[in-house]
Amino acid sequence: MSTTASAQALPGVPAPAAPAGTTHAERDGAQARYLVQFVPGADVAAQARELRSRGIGVGRTFSAAVRAAVVTATPGQAAALERKAGVAAVEVDAPVGISGTQYSAPWGLDRIDQRALPLSGTYSTPTTGAGVSAYVIDTGVLGSHTDFGTRVAPGWSAVPDGPGAGDCNGHGTHVAGTVAGATYGVAKAATIVPVRVLDCAGSGYTSDVVAGLDWVAAHHPAGAAAVANLSLGGGTSTTVDAALQGVINDGVTAVVAAGNSAVDACGASPARVPAALTIAASDRTDAQAYFSNYGTCVDLYAPGVAITSASHSSTTGSASLSGTSMAAPHAAGAAAVLLSQNPALTPAQVSASLTGGSTPGVITGATAGTPNRLLYAAPGTAAPDAAAPTVTGRTPGTNALSVAGSGNVTATFSEAVQGAGTSTFVLKDAGGAVLPAAVTYNSTTRTAVLDPASPLAADRRYTATLLGGPSAIRDAAGNPLATTGWSFTTGPAPTVTGRTPAINAVGVSRSANVASTFSEPVQGAGTTTFRLTNTATGAAVSAAVARNGTTNQWILNPGATLAANTRYTVTLTGGTTGIRDLAGNPSAGSSWTFTTGSY
């Protein structure tokens, strides 16, 4: 993935480039740098030792935000690694780049503290972000800039080129100024923690971003209020996505730029991470910025055109830049303001509060499918939603008997939820095997429906399970459903208990009816499912089919006298649309023959 320091555009890289310093021969043939992501819980050190034993070079390893390693390997070795036990993904280590009341406030700050235009010329929020750490994952930060005072922590750098966590590009300082600068910032008292993952040219590698995220996860104090801003992005990377999710799981609210290529943000990492706040850009007329990415992965719009903020040119410098790189830190600052009011908020609760408290419907030119929500920096101070969703209804019911094998399994929740799908709503047979099924969720009825790919077997016990958790079924505030399950038993299939004429009967009267008696009341018996044919020719005999009173017997009455001394076949068709019991359990279907006499 790739971005640019100007923040005017974040172009994608069409093909992975070789690491700096590699030769043409290395690019075209033997080796490249890869990121290997291991499965959760993997022993990274042991995996690294095994890779080295295979002759694969291992560089940096990660175990806090994500379990992964940087390796140097041939394409063949990389392909083999994808099939190795314990490996979740292998990808090229691709290049990346940068993607109180205040009077005479910068227009971006002025816009996010009011619901409608025109601008008032002022900016105010309930708090200033004090007590909240803002990790700026970027090109570093000029810590001596007067707009930051003494609020810049030492930070860390993934780039070993000399400046440490300082900024020799300018992008990170500008972003930090919008997050927490005294003049240009949303959260004017938040602590800035520079995490440098891009070099002086504003470029680096996917592994540098992963390294920065891993450092954040390892050094973020448990329970401490924190936000992370990533004004970078580009092509998709499962390892970057997993690392960012690891940071979010650690309790850090993540805000990312949607990207500046005027394309769907769902095609970019980390913009596509569902648990992150993905920010598109708007201009001072509340129009979608011409360069902004869009789509369903966007959560909010924020000011991103001609944004003035701190510059690395001097300790008092300022600069005006445009891009979703400038929009994202407005939201990161707003998240810090919210956390300073209530430090116990989870990342999901912060996201829910900012999206729920945003200003709806004011963005003009918003691309279809993009949520039309403009950031509002003071969405409210109400107590967070701490109530977990529960299951209020289920079909079949708990321990239900004689359940139709052709039916669906449903669960209704106490409130709207997210995360209901094939991995979180499963149906297992008595042996514990998961049955293939489709799962849909209706937010209006709050009901999830599991539709098995094939009918359930008769007279069998099944167990439905709903998996709750921070990344499983949860409400909009992130409160997880308690994992729950229930069992039911399908009904026995109806069987044929009597036949007239009997199987292989001979000398049957040519004017006789044909009868079939079932083990229980059935539905679906008719002229297409209870049939009589000439065995030799296959010709169907025209007949009427009706139930014998209130009994479980069905009668087939031929429309004409049967031929003499002729063999006939009776066919009963079962299945979900054939003969089945009243609960829908299908009969297996059967057939038999008899032979008429002379009369």
TrEMBL record:
Lineage of producing organism: Bacteria, Bacillati, Actinomycetota, Actinomycetes, Micrococcales
Recorded superkingdom: Bacteria
Start and end residues of each SbsA Ig-like domain: 385-490, 493-596
InterPro entries: Cu-Rt/internalin_Ig-like, PCSK9_ProteinaseK-like, Peptidase_S8/S53_dom, Peptidase_S8/S53_dom_sf, Peptidase_S8_Asp-AS, Peptidase_S8_His-AS, Peptidase_S8_Ser-AS, Peptidase_S8_subtilisin-like
Keyword Signal: yes
Name this polypeptide is given: Serine protease
PANTHER family, sorted: CEREVISIN-RELATED, PEPTIDASE S8
Key words of the record: Hydrolase, Protease, Serine protease, Signal
Keyword Signal: yes
Peptidase S8/S53 domain boundaries: 129-354
One Gene Ontology CC term in the entry: extracellular space
Organism this protein belongs to: Arthrobacter crusticola
Similarity comment: family membership: Belongs to the peptidase S8 family.
Pfam families named in the record: Big_5, Peptidase_S8
